[in-house]
Amino acid sequence: MITAVDTNVLLDIFGADAKFGEASADAIRQCLGEGALIACEAVWAETATAFPSSEKFRRAMADLQVTFEPLSEAAAVKAAEAWRRYRGRGGRRTRIVSDFLIGAHALSAADRLLTRDRGFYRRYFAGLKVLDPSA
Q: What is the pTM of this model?
């Protein structure tokens, strides 16, 4: 079982979030017990901003056993398709944001996505299994 991890879950853990940190850490442990954890470029870059150095970031990700898994061309196109649906439904953002890339990556490279943003991903990535540690 491969689980793609969203930025919000990683920041819950690395930032010791008082509200979600423990539940996110428990979910990470559960997912690790069932298989591998991966993160795409967008999650990697967003999470790295929370660390004072790239070395500390890399060490933390290695300790958590999250590996870097880049987006495929097909996932990038899937993100664009989801973005077009979003804009067609009245979405105001004019650029493809990281959430579309994260969702498309999880749909194509993983069996599920560990995130607290369940409504967005379920709406734009049909068939994506979403685990919410805060539920």
A: 0.91
